[in-house]
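pipeline/complex-builder :: batch 7 item 3
reading input block
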Amino acid sequence: MRQKRISFLIRQLKAGKKEFFDEFYETTRPAVFYIIRKYTADFALAEDIMQEAYISYLNNLDKVDETRNPVSYLMTLVKNKTIDALRKITPETTEVEAEKINLQTTDTYSSDMPLLAYAKKMLTDEEYYILIMTTVYGYRRVEVAKKLNRPVTTVNRKYNVILKKIEKYYAEVYYEKD
Amino acid sequence: MKKTDRILKELNKNAPDVKDKIVNAVDWDEIAIKNGAPDKARDNKSSGRKWKVAAAGIALILVAAISVILPVTLKKDKNSVLQDGYVVTIEVNPGVRFEVNASDVVTAQTGLNEDGVVLLYKENLVGKNIDEATAAVIEKMDAAGLIKGNVKISVSDRKGKKLENKQNDVIGVIRRVLNDGNIETLILSDKELDDIEDYYEKHGVSEYEKEIIEKFRKKLLSEIEIKISGARNILALLEENKNSAAKLSTLDETVLKEVKEYCNKYKIKWNEIKDDEIREFYDDLTDKIEDLEEAREEIGKNKDEDDYGDMLEDLFEIVEEELFEEND
């Protein structure tokens, strides 16, 4: 997701222009769902968490600085609401800190998202990181390069390698050719 | 479909769609009020001022004249952080204006006359602290030999009330940048502010800004087309060897020369790729054409942006990622 476009959308949302929410939602939905899915495969729960998180985000837009990575606040909100929701389901964990809860954080997507699951299994940690950051979170490769403290050329080349692998994995997972 | 979009397709297929529930559950009028927009149709006009201010506006116009140096306090008043932002205008002729939020971060930049637009061209100071942005602009003006007499400043809130402490902060920055030269800080009067605003509106300066961005966009599109054409030319030359595992360096001399010229033009380090397989290079070029075509589409979408600083930054990122493949 383009940060500048997101900043623009948030400015519109702050002005109460709900017609811009559509684009904001569709842009951020994959990343939001990805975070929830890391912890739970419960679809109904994911629905509730998504709804709560977005409503909370919109109701607290005055706390969001659209010039400074505004989506990270949404992602933090989603993660916290996911953890809170799971704590409610597991009563004995009410007094336990969130970090100690036995949450599913192993990204098992094999049944509903086989390509993602296979990519996680087959790619290196760095390759998977680049894939998720660029594809799911929408960071530009120059931004990912800064996060990794690597030259952009290196990230570009790795990205091209990842593209080829994804194409190959797609064929293997779905037994189709392009 | 772009290869990685298959991952997004999986996520979107499985993600719940609760968009309508969210839209209906939220009080959009309340959101607008909470964020300082009581009238959704408002165009941010403050009483007696026609400035277009996205957040609360404080105009800071810096005026420095070669004469008496006014005493300046550099101490920032931490207790007077404004709930709304403010606008900083620096008028040397060229004139520039910054919109600033309550955390002293620039949220928008505007050239107030044609020279101001040119001065800010290729500068994106949005997101920077106002001190940093002020220093950057003053340095640029100074380097261009523009600061010869007066540098005018004004800081006011949306109601036109002057903010002395903020003014003093900006004066302090300017004096540091100019090494305390014989610069006097003068505060722009209301009439001078109105004159600047009138010039901005009457001379269609915002249109000039659009013109510059549009020229840059067209130039970038043109360069992307040239690169796509160049890449396709290389692909055509490599067509009969596209499945070869031989090294690039073993190519026929004529073809090799073309490949090296392409690499040189787009800053691809030949030494890093000369031992790559021809088929790998062929595939990379095919992917690059796809990326460039997407960038071309994205440039077209940028037209909806209302912040020209943002638009410029987007365009420069495209140059960095897609046009030239090295970032030293």
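note: Chain A touches chain B through 63 residues (CB under 8 Å).
queue -> next item
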